[in-house]
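Figure caption, in words: inputs first, then the predicted bound structure.
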Amino acid sequence: MLNDDDVFHLARLALTKDEADVRLFLAKQVRKLRRDDPESATRLEGLLKSQSSRSTGILRDAFPHDPSDRRSNLDSTPSLLKHYDNDQPLQAPIWEGEVLQMLGQSISERHFIDELSRCGLLPTRSLIFEGPPGVGKTMSAKWLAKKLALPLYALDLSAVMSSYLGKTGSNLRSVFDFAKSHPCVLLLDEVDAIAKRRADDADVGELKRLVTVMLQELDDWPADGLLIAATNHGSLVDPALWRRFEMVVAFKAPSAEMVRESICRYMGPDFDNMRHWAGLLEYLMVGKSHSDIERVVMQLRRLKVIAPLQFEDLAANLLIRDVDDIKKSERINAATYLVSTLGFSQHQANKMTGVSRDTIRKKIA
Ligand SMILES: Nc1ncnc2c1ncn2[C@@H]1O[C@H](COP(=O)(O)OP(=O)(O)OP(=O)(O)O)[C@@H](O)[C@H]1O
Ligand SMILES: [Mg+2]
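Bound structure (magnesium ion present):
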């Protein structure tokens, strides 16, 4: 039988609501009991089998018995819905062009609810963000939630699909039920996961059910919440689903001007003493994402602290490392910049960039 330590251990596991650990512990007890008390072992084993882990539902922990406790429970328990804290500091994402215009509008609409409603209109309820990695889709969802003072929940569909196929439809419905129960922003990340799964081996019926759930839930989504889907592969998203979103926001790699802004933002307090590197970075970062820019700039800043004496050489090598990926015209600009602004010799610039000294000389002249 269970001794005091076992009972304490079990109680602790149960209180942390880690079902997998509770199951593991009980399975161990079954093995122990088989020797000493076969009848109890059989009963316990029967209980474990009859309560399949899936039957408890993925959002069991997100639905505490006391609704007022909902948020604390989400915070403390891992579930498929990730809750982002709105109070965390967050800088505004760098937006431009259409993204700036559309997301600006969707925030403004929330300040004009009454005016809209007098005209029989609702604010935009659902958006789909499409674009390459690292350009601010997730960051923008967080920013919208912050600006609208709504809690943000994120659901990674690829994780849901890989772990719960067979119950994804009902699990997804539970997620929506929860999200619809109070005003919030729900981010469905990697919404193309459904399509990718379809290309694999999946049960077609299950996927159809899943798309149907999504379609219904999109139609039902309340106007006091915001539903945002994000994808790197818009073309993979089911067209019927795509059509349901009221706003399609296409994120792109930043323009030259925004590359400059991003470099400046991520150089932060080091901008003044690193500004001469900004020009080179601008040439090298064309076509790259904000998160690429952030990564390189942060690496440079760290380098300056740990190796101040060799910084210039190390920095140049670090930046030029992936020179083969850079367009020829940008490479020539970078080589010229190395010589005329950063004081490298034509020979060094040629070695780093592969641009001939002749070309560098002509360009400088
Ligand atoms: N528009 C932006 N303005 C400022 N910083 C940005 C921007 N986009 C990305 N970043 C920086 O890059 C990080 C990663 O961006 P984010 O997670 O939003 O990318 P994503 O578009 O969601 O990429 P993925 O498709 O891989 O999910 C951000 O936390 C931020 O530091
Ligand atoms: Mg993202």
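DSSP finds 19 helices and six strands in the chain.
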